[in-house]
Amino acid sequence: MNNWRHEYIITNGVRLHYVTQGEGPLMLMLHGFPEFWYSWRHQIPEFAKYYKVVALDLRGYNDSDKPKAQSAYAMDELVKDIEGVIKGLGYNKCTLVGHDWGGAIAWNFAYKHPDMLDKLIVLNLPHPAKFAEGLRTPQQIQRSWYVFFFQLPLLPELFVQSNDYQFIETAIKGMAVDKSAFSQADIDAYKDAAAKRGALTATINYYRNAFQPKTFNQSLGVLEVPTLMIWGEKDDALGKELTYGTEAYVRDFQIKYITNCSHWVQQEQPSLVNQYMRDFLGVAAFV
């Protein structure tokens, strides 16, 4: 981590924090809930060999600005943030990597600005149309109980912060297949990020905007951006069946399943995730 730089960029009316390493074409990494840039700690040094890697704190998270309005976390605003970051860093396009909510933003960005992407990599977050289908099934509704719970005012914040943010430890380490992938320092880092003033409401507001039509849009056409999906098969929150049929929505599509791996795929199986990413990006032979 000594070679990582912590920097800020102002875009779309917010100041966003990010960690960066490397030089070259841009690789932009978008984390999920309840994480922050730290979820990419195993990928940053690996891909800094080939790219300028930028691991963002999404708006509302960790050291980025936390607007108070719920509407500030609508998908349109999140997509505008990514557009502004790419341009603000002096690039016209990037390789975009997203996990969980970062994956949802990445899918939506790819449809809105396909010309700004070289390639797209999404980890454990289905295509928006497939997710919309899934949310009409009893099994996915049961898995996504927290999405519905988070629609309530105030109670979710109280629940998440209770008992020293035990929810976060249960969500991350409790769901993991290989629990040794997360040290207590890792869990504490996530708890500390969530405990920053305004962060809990901000991050839960992503879910309070989740049922807007643009978040999980079923009317999307065929995406022309080459796309890799990596999927930990033992994801308690998102069923593997949500990946089936994705090739109907993406012209150049690859999927790699990882057995005995949870939702937190890039942290639990970093070597395999990095290998699949390198192969897809054509950098496997580089040193």
From TrEMBL:
Recorded GO MF terms: hydrolase activity
Presence of keyword Cell division: no
Family matches, as Pfam families: Abhydrolase_1 (PF00561)
Transmembrane segments: none
Domain AB hydrolase-1: 25-252
SUPFAM superfamilies with a match to the protein in the record: alpha/beta-Hydrolases (SSF53474)
Listed Gene3D superfamilies: alpha/beta hydrolase (3.40.50.1820)
Keywords of this entry: Hydrolase
Protein name as catalogued: Hydrolase
